[in-house]
Inverse folding.
């Protein structure tokens, strides 16, 4: 069962390259043994740097289900998710993720996954893309407003 | 200048809560002193767990510019980006990010940002969402196909 779904993800990832559509990545989301979404990397085809296979599969599965939470579903990804996709997986509350290629394999093929993982462990000011704090006192009002808001939908 | 753009991001984040639309987060992307995209969190409004303000702003800026790379632009985010958004920022190749609230502030308000940062540092098998390796040998074919592909668009 697991190999069946992963073989499909791998086949999609290879087809995505050979068709010239995009990068060598694909992902499936499976709920109760049924595929509810499958997606390939379409960063260059759609001019969207967030259009990794995992993010696109999550968006498709949530859109089809009309909910922002995929608890009870699992993902089969042709490659270890990058930090962006792993974050998306946490926000979507998937149960678990099967992956084939590793972040190191992706790095060897010229993708930045491993670099981004290393960057996350560095102090803000030392990163290639610096993170600069500004106006926290003013911004805290947003969280006070959130706390005070009635009938809000948590996520 | 920096305070002007951040004040706008903060105002949008507060308005997003008070209007009942979504979470207390907003982000702007600025190129050459001009706002090219602004966005708020619309996870619950759009049933999309990836629809954080930063991701949505990047998608909008890239869509408007017709490119998948925002080198030369900067982001003003009302809160420190979560790992998903930080990953998106790297893939979009923004120059730098100004942020106001911290990940700890977001955690205090009930959001999972800090938890996800901690999870990224744990071994795969010990995470709340386990990452399980499967069929790497078969999947490596996708990277061989990528290497062999002519006229591919790198990203």
């Amino acid at each position: 069962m697991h190999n069946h779904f992963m073989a499909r993800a791998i086949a999609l990832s290879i087809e995505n390259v050979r068709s010239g559509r995009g990068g060598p990545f694909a992902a499936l989301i499976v709920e109760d043994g049924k595929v509810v979404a499958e997606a390939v990397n379409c960063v260059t085809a759609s001019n969207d740097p967030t259009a990794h296979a995992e993010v696109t599969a999550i968006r498709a599965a949530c859109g089809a289900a009309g909910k922002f939470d995929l608890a009870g579903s699992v993902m089969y990804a042709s490659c270890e998710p990058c930090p962006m996709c792993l974050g998306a997986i946490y926000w979507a509350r998937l149960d678990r993720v099967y992956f084939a290629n590793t972040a190191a394999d992706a790095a060897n093929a010229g993708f930045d996954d491993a670099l981004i993982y290393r960057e996350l462990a560095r102090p803000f000011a030392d990163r290639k893309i610096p993170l600069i704090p500004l106006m926290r006192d003013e911004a805290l009002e947003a969280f006070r407003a959130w706390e005070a808001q009635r009938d809000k939908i948590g996520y």
